[in-house]
Amino acid sequence: MRLSSRWSTIALTDFVAALALWMAASVGAWAQSGTVTSVRVVDEPDASRLIIELDAAPSFHSFVLPDPDRLVIDLKDVKLKTRLPILGSDHPLLKGIRSAPRNQGDRRIVLDIKAGVKAKSYAVAPNEQYGHRLIVELDAGVVAAAPLPPAPANSPPLRDIVIAVDAGHGGEDPGARGHGGTWEKNVALDIARQIAALISQEAGMRAVLVRDGDYFVSLRERITRARREKADLFLSIHADAFNNANARGSSVYVLSDRGASDEASRWLAERENAADLVGGVSLDNKDDVLASVLLDLSQTGTLQASAQVADRVLSQIGKLGSLHSESVQSARFVVLKSPDVPSMLIETAFISNPEEEQRLNDKSYQDKLSVAILNGVRDYFRSNPLPGTRLAAAESTTGMRAEMASTAPDSAVVSRPTRRGKTQTPASRRKESTPSIQVSPM
């Protein structure tokens, strides 16, 4: 009787252990399995992104094969429950996308890519708007620019002042949303396009749009695009949002190397800087990017110029109505961290305020706001003409004419504009100085 009880106890223990192992294996297999719920291609002017959405974190391996060129993505223990996008024959980077099961439960997705296309794939964790994503970045590579013709002897070519106008957010990152359903990315693009059009109508000035469509651009890529265009000024256009629906008015921000001006500035900077996480950006190369892009704090000239032009713009915007902040604010916005391009971020209004949301959608208000921003920018560059630009040459010619008129007999008294190359302005004109910007520690 005792022997039988002993063997029964051993058998029961073995059964429980086996059951536990089976349950653990089943749970592990269930936790690793996933489903592809969406596959889409988002095209940008010079790149494309394949976005694969899943209901669980993907385990994947990707590699490139030649002859013909193709990118292979192997997803482990994943089911495909959606249709693959159909591409046109004229797609600049992709020839097609196909898929097939493999290894009894895995899934292989193949992207037939065109010659010279570079690819990078990475997984992105869920956030408030999206679940698990596997993102493949496709780039045609850098095309060498055609050499410029030689300049005539003793006649250096004059250039336009280049202003990069950046419409905040876009694509996967819609930004803030108003109570009436207005997305920040849409009004920012409308206003940015209007500002760019007005700037390009100015003699000696040229605007470039960092984003000219509804697609995602990472924060550091915005800096890169502005520097690639050799921009003299970077304007980032946004529509503010706050947890208080009564907050209202416009604000202008420059980069702070110490901290935010106030709690609202700190909160806003954290929200805007999180845009890369929303859009899905790999941070694997963060150190390399930071080494080449982040602001050298010793370059005070860029920070001072940013504050000066921001003060002019804020003064002009203030003529339209209420300002949320009467002085230029500062915060640690990633998009403002260009080492050699004066930069500012303009919060046009509070999209979280129903009344201001309506104003942002009003074409008349957009026009007035764009003109105000242009006036501030133009005022700054006329007071601080950059050597070698058409605007500087025009200001120099005007200055010479005014000086000749002031020294001619019986001439009328005229005010002297600043000569090109001077750092001091006449007492009769506004003294150029760096606006006082109060910064509180983080």
Please describe what this structure looks like.
- The structure is a single chain.
- The protein is 33% helix and 23% strand.
- The protein starts with a helix and ends in a 35-residue tail after the last helix.
- A hairpin with a 4-residue loop joins strand 3 and strand 4 (70-75).
- Mean pLDDT is 78; it is low at 1-10, 20-32, 143-149, 286-298, 400-434 and 438-442.
- It folds into 2 domains: 35-139, Immunoglobulin-like; 161-283 and 290-383, Aminopeptidase, CATH 3.40.630.
- The chain contains 10 helices and 15 strands.
- It is of the alpha/beta class and 442 residues long.
- The protein is globular.
- The strands form 3 sheets. The protein has a 6-stranded mixed beta sheet, with helices on both faces. The chain has a 5-stranded mixed beta sheet with strand order 5-1-2-9-8. The protein has a 4-stranded antiparallel beta sheet with strand order 3-4-7-6, with no helix packed on it.
Task: List strands and helices in order, with pairings.
Elements: H1 2-32, E1 34-43, E2 47-54, E3 60-65, E4 70-75, E5 78-80, E6 94-102, E7 106-113, E8 118-124, E9 132-139, E10 161-167, H2 184-200, E11 205-209, H3 219-228, E12 233-240, E13 251-255, H4 263-273, H5 275-279, H6 286-293, H7 300-317, E14 329-331, E15 343-350, H8 354-360, H9 363-383, H10 390-407
Parallel strand pairs: 1-5, 10-11, 10-12, 12-15, 13-14
Antiparallel strand pairs: 1-2, 2-9, 3-4, 4-7, 6-7, 8-9, 13-15
